Amino acid sequence: MASGFSDYLENALLNNHFNAGTLTIPASIHLSLHTASVTDAGTGAEVSTTGTAYARLAVVRNTTNFPTATGTTGVISNGTLLQWAVATASWGTLTAFGIWDATTAGNLLYWGDLTATKVIDNGDRFEFPIGNLTITLA
């Protein structure tokens, strides 16, 4: 399973830490679902918003939604159910997710392939149960 920081976030972190650049931390993050692998550059077909009831899922950044990472593991996971709306048309076969700083467009922060593909048809709902969206820094 591939995953990683986006080019945007890698550069923003390096500039912030080494040359006094500024990194704006968003109040919420926005989870996207994709039918093609995402890249560091932010490419990868996102589910269509036209007639599907799909939209990026806004998640407030706090210790309820993502309990604090501690120790030496470099891992954080969702502490609440992350659930999208019921599909009103096929979303296709989901293969990847993205984490963005905006509801639409914006900057990709992190991305990852799903551990298993998932077909979302009309009437289905996609979710990450508690602890199933795991971000690892290695």
Number of domains: 1
Structural shape? globular
Instruction: Quote the beta fraction.
Output: 25-35%
| Amount of helix | under 10%
Strand order within the widest beta sheet:
1-7-6-2-3
- Helix and strand content put the structural class at mainly beta
In round numbers, the mean pLDDT is: 94
Biggest beta sheet attributes: 5 strands, antiparallel
Counting DSSP E segments of at least 2 residues, the number of strands comes to 9
Number of helices: 1
**Measured distance between first and last alpha carbons:** 14 Å
Q: What is the helix/strand order?
A: EHEEEEEEEE
Spans of at least 5 consecutive residues with low confidence: none
> What is the radius of gyration computed over CA atoms, rounded to a whole number of angstroms?
15 Å
Kindly summarize this structure in a few lines:
This protein is mostly beta strands and 138 residues long. It has one helix and nine strands.
Describe it.
With 138 residues, the protein is mainly beta. The protein has one domain (3-15, 26-136). The chain has one helix at 7-18; strands at 3-5, 28-34, 57-60, 75-77, 82-83, 92-100, 108-120, 127-128, 134-136. It has a five-stranded antiparallel β-sheet. It has a two-stranded antiparallel ribbon with strand order 4-9. The chain is globular, with a radius of gyration of 15 Å. The mean pLDDT is 94.
